[in-house]
Amino acid sequence: MPRLFLYSLLACLFALAVGWRSTYGAGDAPSGCEGVFGATSRGGATASVGGGGGCNPIGHSQPVEVEVVRVIDGDTIEISGGRRVRYIGVDTPEVSGNLQYYGPEATSFNKKLVEGRKVALVPDFSEEDAFGRLLRYVYVDGILVNAELVREGYAWAKAHQPDTRYAQCFAALEREALEAKRGIWFRQ
Questions:
Q1: Which of 49, 75, 80, 92 is the most exposed, fewest CB within 10 Å of its CB?
Q2: Domains of the chain with bracketed CATH
Q3: Per-residue pLDDT tens digits for 75-129
Q4: pTM higher than 0.85, yes or no?
Q5: Contacts (Cβ under 8 Å, ≥6 apart) of 38
Q6: Active site includes 133?
Q7: Catalytic residue among 34, 42, 133, 151
Q8: Out of 86, 136, 151, 165, which one is annotated catalytic?
């Protein structure tokens, strides 16, 4: 299993090094990233978090289904029971404190995806961040929300060790959004 992950990671790095077009579908994603690319609306929203298939980062982790009661910003939600969840592997522009370009749009897009809905939460390695927020991959209706935010240009790919299961795939999605000038990349 670790060898397969290493080969997939190397394939994603190779795809990034040689470059590729910005019109990926699930079928033409970099090797090893097909599940992540397929788990976006442009890729067909084909994530399957149950039973270890599709885009489940850790096959033995059972997703936990919860209701989103409030969207805090583009990459943080509050779930039933009052816990906050921070999306793994992404960073969106800020809306509190120092308002950043495209922050309100990222928050609005996140609301459109998850607010008031049941979502599935899947961990990587870390349970919480330094602020006590749960760190999770978040799925709704076949979409990996973390990946969707990056692919649509509402978030940057941002890896933090040790939660890097999809870091290379998120970086590839970011490159696609940049090349297509979507979202935060529009004015650049």
A1: 80
A2: 2-185 (2.40.50.90)
A3: 999 999 999 999 999 999 888 888 787 789 999 999 999 999 999 999 999 999 9
A4: no
A5: 26, 29, 44, 45, 46, 47, 54, 55
A6: yes
A7: 133
A8: 86
